[in-house]
């Protein structure tokens, strides 16, 4: 099982992206997609505690891939990872530096075929280099 956590300043963005990925790829029991956008009171922003809680809640995943939209969303991921107390759980987590929408979609598709960290990173990196 793998988990993909979508981090954005907007819950609408991550909810919509989660819906799109699930619609386009189907719902697989071994892929969990988490919408982690916005704040707990519905405003724009990011919440590192919520991200950390989602990491903890999915500690049985083989890998946890995190995707972010812009600057402080990345900082929230970094803060969440610093808050994870278990080294082995933290080692399962990987922030993937790529475009949020396309990167998370490509990552989810790759998880259907080969969910290894190397394979997911390779495909998202390929996507990123194709854009440059």
Walkthrough of the structure:
It is a single chain. The chain has a 4-stranded parallel sheet, sandwiched between helices. Helix content is 55%, strand content 17%. The protein is of the alpha/beta class. The mean pLDDT is 92. It is globular, with a radius of gyration of 13 Å.
Tell me the helix content: 55-70%
Strands side by side in the biggest sheet:
2-1-3-4
**Averaged pLDDT:** 92
Q: What separation lies between the terminal Cα atoms?
A: 32 Å
Spans of at least 5 consecutive residues whose pLDDT stays below 50 are none
Strand content: 15-25%
Please provide the ordered H/E string of secondary-structure elements. Answer: EHEHEHHEHH
Tell me the radius of gyration: 13 Å
How is the biggest beta sheet arranged? Answer: 4 strands, parallel
Number of helices: 6
- Strand pairing plus helix content: what structural class? alpha/beta
Shape: globular
Please count the beta strands (DSSP E, at least 2 residues each). Answer: 4
């Amino acid at each position: 099982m793998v988990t993909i956590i979508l981090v954005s300043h907007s819950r609408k963005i991550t909810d919509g992206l989660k819906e799109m990925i699930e619609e386009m790829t189907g719902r697989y029991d071994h892929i969990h997609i988490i919408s982690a956008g916005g704040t707990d009171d519905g405003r724009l922003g990011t919440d590192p505690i919520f991200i950390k809680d989602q990491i903890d809640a999915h500690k049985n995943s083989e890998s946890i891939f995190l995707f972010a939209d812009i600057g402080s969303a990345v900082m929230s991921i970094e803060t969440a990872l610093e808050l994870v107390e278990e080294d082995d759980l933290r080692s399962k987590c990987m922030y993937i530096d790529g475009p949020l929408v396309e990167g998370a979609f490509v990552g989810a598709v790759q998880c259907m075929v080969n969910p290894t960290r190397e394979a997911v990173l390779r495909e998202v990196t390929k996507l990123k280099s194709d854009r440059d």
